[in-house]
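Quick note —
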Amino acid sequence: MDYEETLVVSRIVGLILFFALFVAFCAWTYRPGSRRTYEDAGRIPFRGPEET
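Predicted structure written out below.
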């Protein structure tokens, strides 16, 4: 395997790796049961000092 073939294979492997990470992050965010956690985190700026 010469340099050009190694470069092509490494680009393909990198693309697959980062796409898999993107899918995993999306699945983690939209997993069942996470809605309450993210809604609570989204309300942090609107809470008063006594609620924190």
